[in-house]
Design brief:
Residues 450-485 are annotated as: Disordered. GO terms for molecular function: tRNA (guanine(37)-N1)-methyltransferase activity. It is found in: Mitochondrion matrix; Nucleus; Cytoplasm. Its main location: mitochondrion. It is a single chain. The protein has three domains: 70-154, Alpha-Beta Plaits (2-Layer Sandwich); 161-239, Met-10+ protein-like domains (GMP Synthetase, Chain A, domain 3, 2-Layer Sandwich), CATH 3.30.300.110; 261-448, Vaccinia Virus protein VP39 (Rossmann fold, 3-Layer(aba) Sandwich), CATH 3.40.50.150. The chain has helices at residues 2-8, 11-16, 21-27, 33-37, 39-50, 84-90, 132-140, 161-168, 198-208, 265-272, 292-297, 309-321, 335-352, 401-413, 444-447, 462-479; strands at 70-80, 104-106, 114-118, 147-154, 180-182, 185-188, 214-218, 231-236, 241-246, 249-254, 280-283, 301-305, 328-331, 357-361, 389-396, 421-430, 433-441. The chain starts with a helix and ends in a 6-residue tail after the last helix. The chain is α/β, with parallel strands linked by helices. The protein is elongated and about 95 Å long. A seven-stranded mixed β-sheet has the order 13-12-11-14-15-17-16, sandwiched between helices. A four-stranded antiparallel β-sheet has the order 2-3-1-4, with helices on one face. A four-stranded mixed β-sheet has the order 5-6-7-8. The protein has 16 helices and 17 strands.
Length: 485
């Protein structure tokens, strides 16, 4: 009878039968309600204690893998080999689940007819810990619910990334194991208190993530006009040429010299899916081609531009890599010069041919300020054709970000876009800072007007604004652990 009482008081039973807890407590007067309700918390604490690395690794700055080795005691079940696979399958929720640790080992008695099934010590502490289904399965296989202790060696390789770092870094301080993956490169955003441990952190990331061979940390300052940030090597090989695949398209680039955000793949795909075969696409800030190349693969005629010579070089390389070099013409110009140069020259013929035209402006820190380049763009070439659709990316820290970005776009364009535009939320890049996309058709009142004036949208010089905004952006997108996808 006490066996069933013990089972009823077990954490497994309670989690599934909370409504029966009161009845159980009436029978087991020695057990308090508070102790029963907190049983799951005790189990969680037990897990942390059992798998906690030795205390002497605290403060380690140079990785010593051997220092993490320790011996722990885990419960084991002696099982005949004839029913071994069936038992393991029935107990799959209770067997030990640690990187590199076996679930089944030879019996110490070296009997070929039996094996030991190792159980998770934070889930199974006694025979009463088995669920009803598990206990029934063991009875059907004639396996006694008799546990024995087994001493198991736990090494560095059996620990998870966060467990290693939590054991090493000072207690009470934030521990991060998050990174942004770009091919073989792990890109981290370490905080000040983590910097003394940066080399160790980098090596742990490599050890625990197959395929990662290089770990870098961004520095705080972006000091160029090309959106590439300075970074330092933390561990691994110093090879910055990454190979990535996004939405079925292959890209190669020097990650240290161009801008690439792996969290924008969903947004790239969203916009590209709006493009149809035969459409024309002008990509003003093309980078290495995440909008331009997929659009070309769909049959669009693409003209792509980027001011960064390295981005332009890798854009051309990726066009060849994806066999669309004949569908994409590339330029290495300032965005304003591109709009008032190649785009202006080609737009009249496209409008006359009734071709749909898309203009992508993905430079969220500054793109809104380039909208004034469309003022009077075709004042010498009037047309009744359908004017291009613009996709302009921007940041907002306003309480009403959609209203804010439309207002700013209207100011730069010199024409009210309220009621004539739509705003798509892309992602949150930092607390109280969103990335959005304003979509609108270029107004005839803007494109064919005689106004060529530029908008002085800020008293700050443009390079300074760019550095401040993009430094914040690059920091925030790397720190985020769940990617925009």
């Amino acid at each position: 009878m006490w066996r069933y009482v013990s089972r009823a008081c077990s954490p497994t039973f309670m989690r599934r039968n909370l409504n029966s807890v009161v009845a159980v407590v009436d029978f087991c007067s020695a057990v308090s309600v508070s102790a029963l309700i907190s049983a799951s918390g005790v189990v969680k604490g037990m897990e942390q204690k059992i798998y906690r690395p030795p205390p002497q690794v605290r403060g380690m700055t140079c990785l010593d893998r051997e220092a993490f080795t320790q011996t722990i005691t885990v419960p084991a079940l002696r099982v005949p080999t004839g029913v071994l696979n069936k038992v393991v399958k029935s107990l799959k929720k209770s067997t030990i689940q640690r990187p590199g640790l076996p679930r089944v080992i030879h019996d110490k008695e070296e009997c070929s007819d039996f094996r030991l099934v190792l159980l998770d010590p934070h889930k199974v502490t006694s025979a009463a810990s088995f669920s009803e289904d598990e206990a029934e399965a063991l009875r059907s296989f004639d396996v006694p619910e008799e546990l024995q202790n087994y001493e198991l060696q736990l090494t560095y390789h059996n620990l998870k990334t966060e467990e290693v770092l939590e054991a090493v870094l000072p207690q009470g301080q934030d521990v991060t194991s998050a990174f942004s993956r770009v091919g073989h490169i792990a890109h981290m955003n370490l905080r000040e208190h983590q910097l003394p441990y940066k080399s160790l952190i980098g090596q742990v990331i490599i050890d625990k993530n197959p395929g990662i061979t290089c770990v870098v940390n961004k520095t705080n300052i972006i000091d160029s006009t090309y959106r590439n940030f300075k970074m330092e090597m933390l561990a691994g090989e110093e090879n910055m040429v990454a190979k990535v695949k996004e939405n079925g398209v292959s890209y190669e680039f020097d990650f240290s010299r161009v801008y690439w955000n792996p969290r924008l793949s969903t947004e790239h795909q969203r916009v590209v899916e709006l493009v149809k075969r035969g459409d024309a696409v002008f990509d003003v800030f093309a980078g290495v081609g995440p909008f331009a190349i997929p659009a070309a693969r769909l049959g669009a005629n693409v003209v792509a531009n980027d001011l960064n010579p390295e981005s332009h070089r890798w854009l051309q390389h990726n066009c060849k890599l994806n066999k669309v070099e004949n569908k994409v013409r590339t330029f290495n110009l300032d965005g304003r010069a591109f709009i008032q140069g190649p785009l202006k020259q080609e737009l009249p013929a496209l409008l006359k041919g009734k071709m749909r035209v898309h203009i992508v402006m993905n430079l969220p820190a500054l793109a809104l300020e380039f909208l004034d380049a469309f003022r009077g763009l075709l004042h010498e070439s009037p047309s009744d054709g359908t004017l291009p659709t613009v996709y302009c990316y921007c940041f907002s820290k306003d309480e009403n970000p959609e209203t804010d970005v439309v207002k700013r776009a209207s100011h730069s364009l010199g024409f009210p876009l309220e009621g004539r535009s739509s705003v798509h939320f892309v992602r949150n890049v930092a607390p109280n800072k969103d990335m959005l996309c304003v979509r609108f058709s270029l107004p005839t009142e803007v494109v064919f007007s005689g106004d060529h004036g530029q908008t002085d949208s800020s008293s700050e010089p443009a390079p300074k604004r760019q550095k401040c905004e993009e430094a914040a952006d690059s920091a925030s997108y790397i720190h985020s652990s769940v990617s925009e996808g």
